[in-house]
Amino acid sequence: MARATEALRDATLILVGHGAGGRAAIVERHARTIRRGGTFAAVRTCSLQDGDGLDRTLAGARGENAYILPVLMADGFTMRILSARIAEHAAGAVLCRPVGTLPGLADLLAEQALRTAAERGWSPAETAVLVAAHGTARNPGSARIAEAHAERIRRSGRFAAVEAG
């Protein structure tokens, strides 16, 4: 693990959010946390909704050791758009799997649910957890991923109930 982390010290990480609503602030907050960790030489953010900003950010990574991390739940339509933009503006950059598809996300969600329950004085064994998802009927990937995370948390047996919706 130390060797992998050391290899990233010269790399740029680009977090790409969807950009709808006020979610850009959430992506920027994640970027600040990652920057404080000092793992990457640089951490940048952009959104799919800001086409020019996305293209400029990607073009700025051309020739760099860059990793592009979609802050998305699923590998659907938006990933195809992002792949095409990377090919055009940042060939050679590594496109990572969307955050929502990473297997460790269920553990992070469970930890957050445990912290929230503790802060409110709730017993996890008497607490229900809802893994909320969004998406579209045209691509049910987000719903499937949310259900998979809910199932993993459910199997831990720590909560009274765990549902996805």
Written overview of the protein:
With 165 residues, the chain is an alpha/beta fold. The chain folds into two domains: 2-101, 3-Layer(aba) Sandwich (Rossmann fold), CATH 3.40.50; 105-164, no CATH class. 46% of the residues lie in helices and 16% in strands. The protein has six helices and six strands, in the order H-E-H-E-H-E-H-E-H-E-H-E. It has helices at residues 2-8, 23-37, 51-60, 77-89, 105-120, 141-155; strands at residues 12-17, 42-47, 66-70, 94-95, 128-131, 161-164. The strands form two sheets. A four-stranded parallel β-sheet has the order 2-1-3-4, with helices on both faces. A two-stranded parallel ribbon has the order 5-6. It is globular.
> Given the helix and strand composition, which structural class is it?
alpha/beta
Oligomer state equals single chain
Largest beta-sheet characterization = 4 strands, parallel
Identify the CATH class of the largest domain. Alpha Beta
**Poorly predicted tracts of residues:** none
Total separate domains: 2
Shape: globular
Spatial strand arrangement across the major sheet: 2-1-3-4
Task: Describe the structure concisely for a colleague.
The protein has 165 residues and is α/β, with parallel strands linked by helices. It folds into two domains: 2-101, Rossmann fold (3-Layer(aba) Sandwich); 105-164, no CATH class. 46% of the residues lie in helices and 16% in strands.
